[in-house]
Amino acid sequence: MRTPPTAEVVIDAPLAAVWATMLDTAEYPGWNPFVVRAECPRPAQVGDPIRLTVRWANGRTATSPERITVLDPPATGPDGTTRATLAYVYEGLPARLGLVRGTRWQRLEQEAGGPTRYSTVEEFRGPLVPLAGPGRVQEGFRRHAEALRAQVERGVRRTS
Length: 160
Hints:
By secondary structure, the chain is an alpha+beta fold.
């Protein structure tokens, strides 16, 4: 199987600020070049539907029905590292037919006093995965991660 689509950035901001930006889906159109719209109940909860509109690098858009499966808010472990996780599964027709299944994971990690590491991966499976455009998703994740970093760091600079 091919390498799954991934992206990772280091954000010079507290993890709580990154988490808040990730969950403020109403603001996505103002800063996110990949997920240009995210319709989701607020506050989001596990089991909630989330309808994403993504913009590919060629300018075309697609709508993707998803469902939140993991929403682990920031928590600091015994090692002093704070972590948070958001995940959702694709629920479009190809998933219902078992042709393309996908789970997107977005993880945050911050050691005490350090920057926040954001990582995302899409775990694809099914016989039609190549048609799902993993390369397009990879490029979108890269744009999303870079824009998240810029958005959060701008907000931190404004408030300090």
